[in-house]
Design brief:
- It contains 15 helices and five strands.
- Strands 3-5-4 form a three-stranded antiparallel sheet. The protein has a two-stranded antiparallel ribbon with strand order 1-2.
- The two termini are 36 Å apart.
């Protein structure tokens, strides 16, 4: 709420870097509409892959992992769930589907946030309920020493802070204080500082970002996993989050490091969308295109397991077939034997930004 309060005062200017991001994102949004019209079948494959990557990455950031062989079944089948981790991954999938199906028709309200929390936390006693005791952000170093990185809003103040945050979001969109993408990044940051739930705040914040982007007309999260890009930049994410949260309670913080990071994540998603749409030559060869794109953007030397993480919707057998094909074409070489063998691109021509 403190960041949105700053914007309610209508800042005179925004940083130059923010302006550059917003200009690039405006152009990317135009391309998004072009892809939607011209490549609907290609985007269907990307939607399925993004659903998997988002559910797996968002939970993995919080230390929740599942057996990779079960991922596709959890996403698209109806298996009996084996444990708590599978329940949370499946629940996050359901929350994503709700947002993707309703888009901007799903309001950014307290009721919606409770529902998203219940979905991604599953059948647990405090799902969809604000915290009842202090939940601070604690950092533990490798030597076991702990420190409080950020003191979150108290349980008593949480409902009030959340209601004001949501009202400021709606007011900001109506009165156009600042670009709606900046407002989307701001509500996401303020939500994290309030930290309204005992657990699951990080996951709900990423769902909230996806939903708020729909309200701004930016739908890249339907096709590219924002969560996966955040996971790939996790160290930087925590760094700017701590930097911007200093003096948040007094309203004297600098929100721009985390806001610009969020805009960077969205722009990276659009760049990835452009790359992947260009890689997929036809629906029939969509998964081949995804694997080839992963090979072109991964480190020059890589292992099969690294490709599996980047292509969660593609079977190991399919990945191996694509690698054999690329080897036969002279584009890559195998440096050993067995599933743990390293592969290497023969040059950097496959690498894309």
């Amino acid at each position: 709420m403190m960041t949105l309060r700053q914007f309610a005062a209508k800042p005179d200017s925004i940083p130059a870097r923010t302006s550059w991001y917003l200009t690039d994102l405006s152009e990317a949004r135009g391309k998004q509409e072009l892809y939607t019209r011209q490549s609907p079948q290609k985007l269907k494959v990307l939607r399925e892959n993004a659903l998997i990557e988002s559910a797996v990455s968002s939970n993995r950031i919080e230390g929740v992992t599942v057996d990779r062989s079960r991922v596709a079944t959890l996403m698209f089948g109806k298996p009996a769930l084996r444990d708590r981790e599978e329940e949370e991954v499946r629940g996050y999938r359901n929350a994503l589907k709700l947002i993707h199906e309703q888009g901007a028709k799903l309001p950014v309200t307290e009721e919606t946030i409770f529902k998203l929390h219940r979905l991604c936390r599953g059948e647990i006693w405090d799902a969809g309920v604000y915290k009842n005791k202090n939940v601070d952000i604690v950092q533990t170093s490798p030597d076991g020493h702990s420190r409080v990185r950020f003191r979150c809003v108290s349980p008593k103040q949480t409902p009030k802070y959340m209601m004001e945050t949501l009202e400021l979001w709606r007011q900001g969109l109506r009165e156009k204080w600042i670009h709606p993408l900046v407002l989307a990044a701001a509500i996401n940051f303020d939500f994290l500082c309030i930290h309204p739930f005992r657990d699951g705040n990080g996951r709900v914040s990423r769902l909230l970002l996806l939903l708020s982007l729909y309200h701004c007309g930016f739908e890249v999260g339907r096709y590219i996993s924002l969560e996966k890009i955040i996971e790939d930049n996790k160290d930087r994410y925590y760094e700017v989050l701590e930097q911007s949260s200093q003096h948040w309670h007094e309203g004297k913080h600098d929100p721009w490091p985390i806001l610009n990071f969020t805009l960077f994540i969205i722009l990276e998603a659009y760049r990835e969308l452009e790359n992947r749409v260009g890689q997929i030559s036809s629906p029939r060869g969509a998964k081949t295109g995804l694997v080839e794109h992963a090979v072109g953007t991964i480190a020059r030397e890589f292992a099969l397991v690294e490709l599996e993480r980047r292509c969660p919707g593609v079977s190991r057998g399919m990945i191996r077939r694509v690698l054999r094909k690329m080897k036969a074409e002279g584009r890559i070489e195998c440096l050993g034997r067995g599933p743990g063998a390293k592969w290497r691109r023969k040059d950097n021509t496959l690498k894309r930004g």
